[in-house]
Design goal:
7-stranded mixed sheet; Aminotransferase_I/II_large; Aspartate Aminotransferase, domain 1; about 425 residues; Aspartate Aminotransferase, domain 2; alpha/beta
């Protein structure tokens, strides 16, 4: 009898010797999280046994109270500015947050605007929910705001929502360490996006799962939702910050949070019939992680993770800088996150290269076409792009695999030129 797959990567057939395709932590990191959770579980369950065990009950819609209080302290220290607990809710990760908001807030669907290269599974979720989406060009400092304004002026100028608490459209973007390109949205563009979202009545769903994975020695711009100032006279609440512990700790925890405008939080989360049925999402895991946030062990491990990811990125970049064919281009020098985005020379095809690297070297990566949100007939440049992740391998294996990857690219390009 065949053994059952233990991980998503085994189940979907994405396993390989060198898994540069996977945006997930590897075993040495996960063992540390397992140890952290073992200690936190013992602490929190003893507290529950000594009290009324309310963590084991249907939870409050917004989440475990201790988790939210500890999360506020953690985020305030990380972001270096006050966080309002009344704007937070506990989720089962960024995927669940995106699904809940799209499905509940837009039952009649609308157009979703997104960067022309964006997280491909988010695109698949939007397709499944039957949203139409429009691609917006991406630049080295984030989404092309001028192009977006022209698009919205044509599409949304005369769009009038039937109710004051609805939106005409959605903008989905990954502003920090973009998946897949690694770009960071500039401060100037963050201000501009808030202005445009208010003018054209657009809800921005900001995928912020990489915000806290900046490399040591650097300091990221403020998260996008912080620019949507509640004190502004034209404030409505146009940004949702959708976050996760999947990259910070472990995806197996299925734990995240959203920071929401208070009226959205009340109408679409606290009063949601879905949450009313289930109770707080991920209540048990959030309660356990609360103990790790309270004693500082989670923050310490996340800091160590940042340092380790920076070392891995540096090791992979050093090999690419030395060995990658000169006609290839690294789209953005990573400052954090998980990914390096590479453009092959004109005429090359990342899918054909991937077939070659898998068969000869056991190397997997993600082809650029998967991230393309625009018209399939216009994805020629995306077809010659690819994404590498440095997260899933320790440095020795990462260096070895990256050297082989560069060798494979040389071989593929030489064969293609014949």
């Amino acid at each position: 009898m065949a053994s059952q797959p233990a991980t998503l990567f085994e189940a979907n057939g994405s396993f390989g010797k060198y898994m540069f395709n996977v945006g997930a932590p590897e075993t040495s990191m996960l063992r540390k999280v397992a140890e952290l959770m073992q200690t936190a579980t013992q602490k929190r369950l003893q507290d529950e046994i000594s009290a009324e065990a309310q963590m084991m009950q249907y939870g409050a819609p917004e989440g475990d109270p201790r988790f939210l209080t500890a999360l506020v302290k953690f985020l305030s220290e990380e972001y270096k500015e006050p966080i309002d607990e009344c704007a937070l809710v506990e989720t089962a990760g960024a995927t669940s947050g995106l699904f809940y908001m799209l499905a509940q807030m837009f039952p009649k669907r609308c157009t979703v605007y997104c960067e022309e290269m964006t997280y491909f599974i988010a695109l698949n979720i939007m397709r499944m929910l039957e949203f139409n989406f429009t691609a917006v060009p991406l630049q080295s400092d984030g989404i092309d705001v001028a192009a977006l304004e022209r698009q919205w002026e044509g599409d949304l100028k005369d769009a009038q929502p039937k109710e004051s608490d609805t939106f005409s459209a959605v903008l989905f973007l990954v502003p920090m360490f973009n998946n897949p390109t690694g770009t960071v949205l500039s401060e100037e563009k963050r201000h501009a996006l808030i202005r445009l979202a208010r003018k054209y009545n657009v809800l921005i769903i900001s995928d912020d799962v990489y915000d806290l994975l900046y490399f040591p020695g650097s300091s990221p711009p403020r998260r996008l939702i912080a620019y949507d100032n509640t004190a502004d006279p034209d404030y409505k609440g146009n940004v949702i910050s959708n976050c996760s512990f999947s990259k910070l700790l472990s995806p197996g925890l299925r734990l995240g949070w959203m920071e929401l405008p208070k009226w959205i939080r009340q109408k679409y989360w606290i009063k949601s019939p879905i949450v009313d049925s289930s109770g707080g999402i991920s209540n048990y895991v959030g309660g356990v992680v609360a103990a790790a946030l309270e004693d500082g062990s989670a923050a310490k491990l996340i800091s160590e993770t940042r340092q380790e990811l920076a070392a891995r990125c540096g090791a992979q970049l050093a090999v690419l800088d030395q060995d990658l064919p000169k006609q290839c281009q690294i789209y953005a020098r990573p400052q954090g996150g998980y990914f390096i985005f590479i453009k092959l020379p004109p005429g090359a095809n990342a899918t054909a290269l991937h077939v070659y690297t898998k068969e000869k070297y056991g190397i997997r990566f993600q082809e650029g076409w998967k991230f393309w949100s625009g018209d399939a007939s216009k994805r020629e440049e995306a077809d010659r792009c690819l994404r590498l992740s440095w997260a899933y391998h320790q440095v020795p294996s990462l260096v070895e695999g990256t050297k082989l990857f560069c060798q494979a690219v040389h071989e593929y390009l030489a064969d293609s030129a014949k």
